[in-house]
Recover the amino acids of this structure.
């Protein structure tokens, strides 16, 4: 009986499992992963919209399909986590893949992907400026020039509020109307009346984000194929900076056709643009000028911030006056065909005479010698009204060179009246010969009233000597910077413009005569540094000033004193004229306080 009992206990022991589990064979909880959203549109304006929520019961990591897709973290632990997309290029879609980490050799990896897209903003073109020149039609006789009538101006666009047109030998005509291209408005058009005729559209206002543009304009010529390299040249300026050439495309037909140009502005976006159109022949017409924003690709990149220095020759205004009006004129050099500053003027619209004219001196300004336009092309400054400037030009100035009247104007009233029986020369502040090139725009601009003042020197020899030395001896490879100005020590010295000797006209008005004129100059000592003044050290630069008293009281000096008696430092000239202006603001410290005549050949004796 015992035998059977032992056998039963043995079988029970074998068949009954143990009470403890073997942990090495325990199954892991299955990995879980939830990722949302599946598609994310990157919002550069609201970072909270760029978040991805990850829920997992295990650790995870992230891979991106392109390293340009930036995220704030690439791994995390079990639980709920948030990952932020911080950047992705505009217009791209990249994949972001979240994967669980493998916990042992038999564990399965779970992966889920998110498509991240940065959609390009929808582009809407804006019209910055457009003018079909058709506000009204001229009803008078002849064809008015742009400074004689503004009834044609019909400018519209986001930047067209303060549009201004200036030019030379450009009139408004409606006898050959624009047609043959989309948007041709017919009616009025600009007519270019000869070589170097030009019109400039000023004060086109730009707004933030506007940096790529399409310029279009209708144009035609009288005969022959249209040459885009010369028939009309286009230049762009930003905030009064140097004009930069702009290329455009157009068919070669001489009939009306649309010209187009794409350009972009990099770095600093100017507040205002100017567009200049220059013709090389008469009977060329222009209409429907339009500037719009665009997202098209362009290889024409303009940078108006490449030179960060202000113009060395332009004085800094310390006090100034509300009667002062400032203007800068540009022109094309005659051989190298560069568009350069001709001069900047500060003009007193109360005295009707200039305060100063600032200009660079360099050989490029007289590439064809020192020729002067003949007969003298006296004409108004197109940026000033008749009331603002001294009328020392004939009323028929636009008929220059007056070929039908022996090359003389029919109007004799274009002089100042004498003062105390002393008549005045129309004295150039910037010498006409220093802008050589007979009949060129560069030379003709020197005959504007903004560059002319009544001249009757006490010592004419001093003035002549300095002008000759400037162009014949001191001109160098580096630019010389010059300011020639007028000092008004007594406003009781008066004359009248628009006169013939003592005979006034209906345009005559009171003009104040300067009691002295001055000239200040700055250049490098070697003359060949090739550097901007602002990058020169004090020992590389020299400056000098000259004072030229006028003879308004009929003085009769028996001898002429030496020129050295009228040489001053630039700082002394600033003080003599009352401290209204600071000359050469970019000059190295101390240079304007010293003058060494030995540095200036021709003055040592």
């Amino acid at each position: 009986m015992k035998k059977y009992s032992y056998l039963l206990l043995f079988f029970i022991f074998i068949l009954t499992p143990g009470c403890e589990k073997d942990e090495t064979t325990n199954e892991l909880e299955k990995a879980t992963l939830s990722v949302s959203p599946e598609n994310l549109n990157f919002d550069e304006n609201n970072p909270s919209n760029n978040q991805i929520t990850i829920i997992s019961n295990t650790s995870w990591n992230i891979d991106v399909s392109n390293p340009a897709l930036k995220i704030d973290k690439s791994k995390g632990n079990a639980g709920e986590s948030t990952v932020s997309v911080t950047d992705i290029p505009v217009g791209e879609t990249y994949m972001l893949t979240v994967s669980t980490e493998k916990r042992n050799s038999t564990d399965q990896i779970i992966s889920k992907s998110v498509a991240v897209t940065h959609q390009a903003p929808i582009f809407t073109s804006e019209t910055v400026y457009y003018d079909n020149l058709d506000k009204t039609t001229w009803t008078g006789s002849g064809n008015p020039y742009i400074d004689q009538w503004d009834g044609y101006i019909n400018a519209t666009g986001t930047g067209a509020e303060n549009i201004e047109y200036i030019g030379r030998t450009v009139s408004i005509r409606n006898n050959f109307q624009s047609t043959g291209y989309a948007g041709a408005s017919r009616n009025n058009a600009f007519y270019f009346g000869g070589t170097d005729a030009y019109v400039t559209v000023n004060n086109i206002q730009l707004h933030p984000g506007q940096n790529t543009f399409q310029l279009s304009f209708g144009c035609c010529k009288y005969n022959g194929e249209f040459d885009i390299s010369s028939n009309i040249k286009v230049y762009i300026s930003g905030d009064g900076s140097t004009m930069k050439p702009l290329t455009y495309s157009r068919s070669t037909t001489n009939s009306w056709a649309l010209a187009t140009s794409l350009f972009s502005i990099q770095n600093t976006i100017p507040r205002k643009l100017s567009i200049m159109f220059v013709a090389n022949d008469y009977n060329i017409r222009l209409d429907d000028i339009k500037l719009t924003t665009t997202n098209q690709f362009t290889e024409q990149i303009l940078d108006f911030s490449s030179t960060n220095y202000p113009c060395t020759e332009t004085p800094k205004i310390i006090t100034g006056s509300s009667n002062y009006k400032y203007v800068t004129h540009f022109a094309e050099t005659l051989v190298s065909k560069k568009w350069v500053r001709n001069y900047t003027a500060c003009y007193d619209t109360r005295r009707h005479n200039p305060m100063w004219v600032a200009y660079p001196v360099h050989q490029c300004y007289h590439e064809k010698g020192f020729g002067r336009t003949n007969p003298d092309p006296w004409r108004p400054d197109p940026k000033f009204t008749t009331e603002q400037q001294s009328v020392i030009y004939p009323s028929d100035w636009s008929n220059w060179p007056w070929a039908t009247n022996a090359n003389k104007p029919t109007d004799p009233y274009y002089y100042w009246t004498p003062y105390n029986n002393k008549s005045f020369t129309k004295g150039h502040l910037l010498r006409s010969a220093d802008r050589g090139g007979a009949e060129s725009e560069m030379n003709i601009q020197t005959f504007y009233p903004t560059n002319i003042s009544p001249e009757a020197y006490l010592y004419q020899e001093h003035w002549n000597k300095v002008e000759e030395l400037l162009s014949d001896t001191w001109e160098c490879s580096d630019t010389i910077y010059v300011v020639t100005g007028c000092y008004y020590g007594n406003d009781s010295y008066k004359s009248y413009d628009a006169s013939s000797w003592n005979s006034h006209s209906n345009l005559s008005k009171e003009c104040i005569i300067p009691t002295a004129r001055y000239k200040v100059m700055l250049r490098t000592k070697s003359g060949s540094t090739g550097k901007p003044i602002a990058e020169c050290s004090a020992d590389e630069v020299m400056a000098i000033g000259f004072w030229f008293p006028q003879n308004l009281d009929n003085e009769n000096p028996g001898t002429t004193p030496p020129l050295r008696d009228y040489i001053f430092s630039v700082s002394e000239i600033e003080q003599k004229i009352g401290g209204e202006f600071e000359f050469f603001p970019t000059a190295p410290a101390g240079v304007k306080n010293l003058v060494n005549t030995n540095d200036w050949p021709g003055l040592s004796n």
Summary: The chain has three domains: 31-117, 127-302, 316-599. The chain has a mean pLDDT of 91. Residues 127-302 form a domain with the Jelly Rolls fold (CATH 2.60.120.260).
